[in-house]
Amino acid sequence: MVDLEPVPEDWTRALAVVAHPDDLEYGAAAAIARWTGQGKEVAYCLVTSGEAGIDSMPPDECARVRQAEERASAAAVGVGTVEFLSHPDGLVEASLVLRRDLAAAIRRHRPEVVISINFRESFGGPGFNHADHRNTGLALLDAVRDAANRWLFVGAGGDAWSGVRFALFGGSPQAAHGVDVGATIDRGVASLREHRTYLNALPAGTTGTDPDAFLRAMAAQAGPRLGVDLATAFELIPLG
Asked: Is the pLDDT at 208 greater than 90, yes or no?
């Protein structure tokens, strides 16, 4: 059954904001590859460096490795700008500090669209979504409004920016929009594969350790909902 609407593509600049290196690569990166291929500008902003994500690696070393892997991952889908805000991995709060940092990023990059991943309580199954994901998404939505108000966080990031039209959240159980990624799924897979240190550290049998099989299966599940073979589904929240 076709129940997803196409994501509007009449825009030129986007800012992708997520909590951790590898968050965008579990689905959204294939759509980002489509958009950069259309000539759109996309920048990445990582709230943390994922320094608590590999149990066998000290946080300082882990941060360096994961930052490098994220930059390589972004390059695989045509993204050249990757920023890290250095909030603590695993302890992200939807605080005024994070809202200020995100508002500043929005003012610097002046996007028409912001992109993130699911901030709802779950991904539609029995598990509970990570606190960093939930708090990053909520702070991002608030920061869009903050960035547009010239009296809030004065001087942070530059002049106020009110040009964000909508937010896209990948992996949401409330997704009602989609993007055809049939031509860019290979680049999405390549992007996730750049996180080799992180993937190799995951316990055997963990979902997503085989990027090609995982991403293709997920895209094949969403595709028919958009009337195509392969798609990435997004929750779209109007903001403009």
From this structure: no
